[in-house]
Amino acid sequence: MNTKENKVNYQPLLLFGGAFGLFFAYWVSLIASKNPFIKTFDTAVYNAIKNNSQLEHQLTFYWTQLGNTLTITVFTVILVLVLICFRDYIHALFASLTMIAANSCNSIIKNIIQRQRPHMDKSVQANGFSFPSGHSVGSMTLALVLIALIVVLIKKKPLKTGLIAFCIFFAFSIGFTRMYLHVHWPSDVLGGWCEGLAFGLIGSWLFFKALAKQREKAESKSE
């Protein structure tokens, strides 16, 4: 963990994070106002998703458990504790605050919008309001947190590329399972992805900025 960190051009992260944040705010307004486009969007996506295979249903059911609140929280706590043990305090602070901010915002919006879930299969249980999808927010934010840590801590390119690819797959596949199992509207998942991208990218921008300042201080002291 105490390896020399890779330099990153982090400036575009703020721009993209802000763009996703603005789109998410717009999406929230469409959901809150019950804009007809949302129903059209949800219907079109649902019609494109087929879940008639029992095997696919079972595999999707087990995979979606990896994105639930408990699993994401436990993994985040372990990650933060490991980073603290290696004295990577900026990394630990970044991971914990980004996850807390994203999930807190998600909880607040859920209780303000109070959107009801679609009619669900009785074999799948999901509690609380529907928008935004907590699984989608949590998995996407965690994926971006992990990607940022992978970029600065891992030097071997094949390993780095493989891990980043898995993080991206994890985030989008968890969101897909929520639609496939009909525990969330597709618009819930899209909103969750955008919220997670906004928090993850802006959090990563702050993280890389803090590392750059830390590096500058270290270089000035060594001169």
Automatic annotation (TrEMBL):
Coiled coil: none annotated. SMART domains: acidPPc. Keywords: Membrane, Transmembrane, Transmembrane helix. InterPro entries: PAP2/HPO, PAP2/HPO_sf. Gene3D superfamilies: Phosphatidic acid phosphatase type 2/haloperoxidase. CDD domains: PAP2_like_2. Residues 92-204 form the Phosphatidic acid phosphatase type 2/haloperoxidase domain. The chain crosses the membrane at residues 12-32, 62-86, 93-113, 133-154, 161-183, 189-208. SUPFAM superfamilies: Acid phosphatase/Vanadium-dependent haloperoxidase. This is Phosphatase PAP2 family protein. It comes from Lactobacillus nasalidis.
